[in-house]
Amino acid sequence: MSQQYKGNIPLTLSEYDTLTQLLSRLLSTKYPPVIIPGEAILGIEAVAAGISAPSRTIVNVVTGPYGSLFGQWLERGGATVIEVKVPFDEVVPVEKVAAAIEKYQPSALSFVQAEVVTGGSNPAEEIIKIARAHNLITVSDSVSAIGGEPLLVDEWGVDFVAVGAQKALAGPNGISAVSISPRGWEFLESNAHAPRNSILSLLDLKPSGEGTAPVRVPPNIPTLEARALILALTAIESEGLEQVIKRHEQAALSAIAGIQVLGLEPWQKDNRTYSTLTTTVRIAGEEKLHIDQPIGIVAPGDGELFGQLLRINHFGGNASLAGVEEAVATIAALLNQDHEQAVEAVRLVWGE
Ligand SMILES: *Cc1c(COP(=O)(O)O)cnc(C)c1O
């Protein structure tokens, strides 16, 4: 931010246009995303409310707590929800998604791209491909994935994408976005049950079409957060999205190398499905790893995963060599182990 407090000066059309274009480039879409005046969870709930209807069958993939919550919101809207669930130390196999689509003939499919809580990442591109082959509307909760993993909205043809800035993008948590394809807008518009005149109404936030400049700034956009998001996304562009993603990949690989030297294992069972946002560490009865409060970026498991894993939150500004080194040293200290070798392994894998 500049030195001056500008929260009382309304967002200009040009700032709004800049923000929309930054978001479009981030997501590789030519369609202007909807800017959500709140935390990412609001956009996700709005998508669920907007697509759910008693006449619709929706396959909802559950690989962590956010997927469960999405399913509950779909059910509230009256849809028949087919839950495809796996244990939280796995991600969903594409074959399982394909089998559910064949069996239930849904009109839409929803999933979470990267699970910060479980440390797993679903095979997003393959899931979307199979869903598109069956002409389904696709919904991806990419709140944490964006900036940590590739996501090509138009090329992959994903219809709804929830985006947050507070994870890999190191941005504010008071504003977020939902990218919606033309097919997605039709799916909302053809739903008599989609909210109107409500904080959950995406239809009321529909931006002007592709290529046309916005005519006014939606009055509900939080000004300070919008300006903070412009700064965060500008920083991402100047580092380069590919480099930001690579930094997250390095963080995950080096964190895993470090914990393995300490004699620990990742919580995720399959080494091809680790998320780049968090590394989750299996506690496996190791009493010394039971913590109640986060220590730096080392945090206890959430909800039902409390006591089963530790999370290393190496995303955003903490997707750095120093961030991972400190986290691995913290875990070594919990185990009363010397951290030298583990930290050395972190550096080696990071490439220094
Ligand atoms: C962080 C996150 C959200 C948003 O949750 P907040 O409570 O807004 O932080 C939603 N989905 C996923 C997959 C997330 O990682």
UniProtKB/TrEMBL annotation:
Pfam families: Aminotran_5. The modification N6-(pyridoxal phosphate)lysine is found at K167. Its cofactor is pyridoxal 5'-phosphate. Substrate binds at R311. Keywords: Aminotransferase, Pyridoxal phosphate, Transferase. One of its GO terms (biological process) is glycine biosynthetic process, by transamination of glyoxylate. GO terms for molecular function: alanine-glyoxylate transaminase activity; L-serine-pyruvate transaminase activity. The keyword Transcription regulation does not apply. InterPro entries: Aminotrans_V_dom (IPR000192), Aminotrans_V_PyrdxlP_BS (IPR020578), PyrdxlP-dep_Trfase (IPR015424), PyrdxlP-dep_Trfase_major (IPR015421), PyrdxlP-dep_Trfase_small (IPR015422), SP_NH2Trfase/AEP_transaminase (IPR024169). Residues 54-281 form the Aminotransferase class V domain. Belongs to the class-V pyridoxal-phosphate-dependent aminotransferase family. This is Septum site-determining protein. It comes from Paenibacillus xylanivorans.
